[in-house]
Amino acid sequence: MPAVLVTLLVFPFAVSVATFFLPVRASRVVSVVSGTAAFVLALVLVPTAADHSQVAAGSLLRVDALSVVFLVATAFLYATTSLFAGGYLHLAKNAAGARYGRRFYAGLNLFCWSMLAALLVNGLALLWVAVEITTVVSALLAAIDDTDGATEAAWKYVLIASLGLGIALLATIVMYYAGTTVFGGSYSLSYAKMLGGAGHFPAGAVRVAFVLSVLGFGTKMGLVPVHTWLPDAHSEAPTPVSALLSGALLAICFYAILRFFQITVRAIGPTFPRTVLLIFGLASLLLAALYLLSQRDMKRLLAYSSVEHMGILAIGMSFGVPIAIFGVLLHVLCHAAAKGTAFFGAGSVLRKFGLKDMAKIRGGIGALPWSGPMLVAAVLALSALPPFGIFRSEFLIVSGGLSDPHDVVTAVLVVLVTLAFFGLSWFTTQTMLSPNVTEPASGNGAVVTPPKGEVSTWIVASMAAGLLALTILGVHPPAALSHLLDHAVHELGVPR
Amino acid sequence: MALAPSTYAGVADIVATLVLLTEFAMLRAALLRSQVRIYAFQSLVVTALTLEIAAVRHIGALYALAALTFVLKVVIVPALVSRLLHDADVDLAGSPVLGVASMALIAIAVSAFGFFAAGSLHVHSPTLPATALAIAVAAVLVAFVLIVLRADVVSQAMGFFSVENSVYVATLVLAAGLPLILEVAFLFDLLVAVVVIGVIMRVHHGRTRTLSTEELDRLKG
Amino acid sequence: MGPGVVAPQGIQALQDATILLGAPLVSGVVSHVEARLQGRRGPRMLQPYYDLAKLFRKETVVTEESSWVFLAGPVVAFGCYLIVPLLIPVLTTYGLPLGYMGDILGGGFILALAGFSVALSGTESGAPYAQLGSSRAMTFGALIEPTILFVVFAVALLTSTDLPYAMAATVRSSTSEIVRPGHVFAAIAFFLVVLADTGRIPVETHTGTLELGMIDEGRTLEHSGPALALLKWGSAMKQLILYTILINVFVAPWGLSGTGSGGSVVLAILALLGKAILLGCIFALVDNLFSKLRLFKITEFLAAAFLLAVLAVFIFYARGG
């Protein structure tokens, strides 16, 4: 099993280096192979992680049930995104196009590698390092299109995210300091060690570390009020990158917060960290729901939907009952699949119509016979409609909330999620389902009607994979996976 | 009457306060070049602090760290940014949103908050006195003020780098025993961030022919 | 009381005498050194005494519009400068009987009163430049005030008293007190205050004749004869008083008489004058190294001093009491 970890760490990196030199045509295939391999390897880890408490390779690499949950989500997006990217990229047939392709694929694989690494490493410090690497790589990817918008978004992203990570580093350091009271001056920040000693950490320092970590990693996770970079970066980055940012990177920052949560719960009990998460979660959900009602740009719409879902994750954690935590972890998986699929669909529309402004797009479902309906399905999945996985996960979170004295919060959660549903589905159905009638001349008349037909079968395949996963998670999650999630809930140290 | 700290702690506090003062100097500096120089000086101060702790507390790894800090933050980073400035041929920093005096007052208020917030932690470190932590937190906040109130990419980047410096001071306070490998990883990450920020600064300059961020207002909502 | 011990009242009188008679000497030596630094031969070291003597022999000219305030101002200020040395540690490490008349704030008030009466007297002359100088002096005085207050706070926090004697004793007690950040920054802030208050570069060119840049010097333009002599003498005394506070309270409170014996008091007088001259030379050096700030940039200089004083207080609090 340790070999799996090493492979997961080494292989994507090697692929990233290779794709920088390979021609784009080859990179396309190699990336899909690499992504699929990563996904398979992550799945291989599932039964083991669910049975044993952890799998380690040396002192630096280690996974447990919690990290495998996120590993599966990330690797799944890695696979589907590289598939999608194969159909999405339209490169000029010249030197500039080839250079763009090489850079893009090297960056894409490196980005996925850094995210996998964040989940594989053992210890808060290495986790921080890996997350910082994800920031810089994804910032470069966000800037790769070299438009005014992309530059602006990349600058905001790199600056705000780096500052957030500065705070996260402070959180790590404070946590280290909390540990010195137990372990002495010099020790490694490995998870097992921290969890073992957490009971004796000084409460004040742990409390500060936790708040700083939520603020710091929350910046990258998209928690309000430190989410401001998120819609810009998501809307201006190339669509495959947006999908990874939204589906995987945000979740990884949530994972980082959970690592702090784990230690904090053992050190000072669950009340304080839950309250902190509740505040940030409610703020995120509220703001995102309101913004969702007023978006015209399809990718920004999906970006705010991410903020909404990150808010749901935080609120779910704050409920604290096992069933809600189970729902939260399932939600991570489902959100990765659904948000990925939705972005792929948005990318398909983008390529087809050459526009992001939803007010100008009509009859998408007619123009895109496969990806059109699937985009609608993905948006409905994001809005937690059955039979998709998010219905199940949100249902679990809500029932967890109702089983505890969180009635009011749960009611607010349901109302806001419904509000978000309106925003999300209103604009999407308008874009996709409304018939393609020519607008009266009073409008600017810029309704585009491209001929019927798919952009690429690669895109259709990637979306189908996402919807398939969503359906499986919604209808009947595999037993091994449930087992894994159970284990992860247990690892989060939530009292039963 | 409070007890005086040891001589070592006093000197360390003064050096740490210099970090905060350089932050204020950055806030005031009107020329981009001088901002870079102040950053280099701040890094030098940080290096000196590392050396002092290494010498007094006999932590050998810190000597190596000090050397690395010096090379990276006093030499390489300022040199990289200076080259960008030279190529961009821009001297003046983006006009601050507020006057110098108002900025200074805001920064003083913000750092007061940092001081009292950190002071309420009652952190006691074997390596550095808790005061240095308060100073580091205050410096982080003042750097935030710099980033918010200055509208050009160089000031903002410098603000970020000095946030990193301040966090580094906090690291020295709270975790001087942190294994060297991790410290080096942190530094390496900084280097990567510097390069990426440099690249995006260059792209920005290439597109707009300015270093100002005032035009970066297209993405909203 | 042991043999050879000077009575406290005697020392008290000596304190005043030292400031009164030593001030022109310090000014003379410093301006001599300053001239040398600039490559000039400069005036004799005792020149200020001759100047004063000459001015006292001359008659006083008063404009017809001026009231009695014009002539009273210099006298009041001079009186104030004679009171302040009683309150601060000039010669002894221990407080003298009248030393407890006022604390560090009391001393500050009396100095402010002196400045105010000079400014009032300058305004009373009716001459535009004197009025300009007065108004500027009061404006910047108001800006310096917060800094002084925070320095006082820092002192109070460090010693739990507001007595300059206690502060000096604290500084003497150990090296760790000297490098204590609260102390260092308060001292630097006070250094900058002294720089501004004695009309030195970068705030003012104290030897200049350029009326437009004048602040403190401008106030006395209309005075003549004995009144001018009192003003000049007073300003030299003020300078020595500020030097004394900086030296004997903050920076180097050594060489003071701890016993009150005759020998130690004489030694203390010599030590004080020596240290003051040394400090004056440092100020002269600053004068040579920096250029004068534009009038509107002076606020930034004062803001820096304020920042240091505030930091001194903050750092003290960060320690947690």
Range of strand content of chain A: under 5%
Q: What's the main sheet of chain B like?
A: none
* Rg of chain A, Å, rounded: 21 Å
Helix segment tally of chain A: 19
Uncertain residue ranges of chain A: 438-443
Mean pLDDT of chain B: 82
Low-pLDDT regions of chain B: none
Order of helices and strands of chain A: HHEEHHHHHHHHHHHHHHHHH
Count of DSSP strands of chain B: 0
Computed over alpha carbons, the radius of gyration of chain B is 18 Å
Average pLDDT of chain A: 88
The termini of chain B sit apart by 54 Å
The shape of chain A, in one word, is globular
How do the helices and strands follow one another from N- to C-terminus of chain B? HHHHHHH
Q: Nutshell version of this structure?
A:
The complex is a heterotrimer of chains A (496), B (221) and C (321). Helix content of chain A is 77%, strand content 2%.
How does this structure look, described?
The complex is a heterotrimer of chains A (496), B (221) and C (321). With 496 residues, chain A is mainly α. Chain A folds into 3 domains: 1-120; 122-268, no CATH class; 270-496, no CATH class. Helix content of chain A is 77%, strand content 2%. Chain A has 19 helices and 2 strands. The longest helix of chain A has 36 residues, at 148-183. The two termini of chain A are 30 Å apart. The mean pLDDT of chain B is 82. Chain B is mainly alpha-helical and 221 residues long. Chain B is built from 7 helices and no strands. In chain B, 76% of the residues lie in helices and 0% in strands. Chain B starts with 6 loop residues before the first helix and ends in a 13-residue tail after the last helix. The radius of gyration of chain B is 18 Å and the shape is globular. Chain B has one domain. Chain B has helices at 7-28, 32-57, 60-88, 100-119, 130-149, 153-174, 180-208. In chain B, helix 1 (7-28) packs antiparallel against helix 2. By secondary structure, chain C is mainly alpha-helical. Chain C has one domain (8-318). Helix content of chain C is 68%, strand content 0%. The longest helix of chain C is centred in the middle third of the chain and has 32 residues, at 128-159. The radius of gyration of chain C is 19 Å and the shape is globular. The chains are: A mainly alpha (496), B mainly alpha (221), C mainly alpha (321). Chains in contact: A-B, B-C.
